[in-house]
Design a protein that fits this description.
about 120 residues, alpha/beta, three-stranded parallel beta sheet, 3 helices, 3 strands
């Protein structure tokens, strides 16, 4: 079973605008370095820090939403995809992408980056 990890956010992201108070992309993890930093000292009540114990189990490592991702660039590569695997359609043109998606749906293969299909369908 895959555990839910906490969102490891930068120290004081909610305090300063430049650290991501309004812009989420600025909140990504940075190691706390301050001398008196409570987060660096791992004090009780402070946010969790990423450590080796938060890693995925060996049997779940590398999976995305419980599936083993396989990169597919053309219809011939779609043949190597097995039942417990899902595909990620690589950078291909619209016509080939739609053909790959149609064939994958026919075979009942899960597509992990579904948003690409919706964007190109319009």
């Amino acid at each position: 079973m895959i555990r839910k990890k906490p969102a490891f956010l930068r120290q004081h992201w909610d305090r300063y605008l430049r650290l991501g108070k309004k812009v989420k992309k600025h909140r990504h993890w940075r190691h706390p370095t301050g001398g008196d930093s409570k987060m660096r000292l791992k004090e009780r009540g402070k946010p969790d820090r990423p450590t080796i114990g938060w890693g995925a189990d060996k049997k779940d490592f590398g999976k995305v939403k419980g599936f083993v991702p396989i990169r597919v660039e053309n219809l011939t590569e779609l043949g190597r995809v097995k039942n417990n695997e899902a595909i990620i359609v690589a950078r291909v043109g619209r016509k080939n992408r739609m053909a790959i998606i149609a064939k994958a749906n026919e075979r009942g293969i899960k597509i992990l980056n579904r948003y690409m299909e919706k964007k190109n369908a319009a």
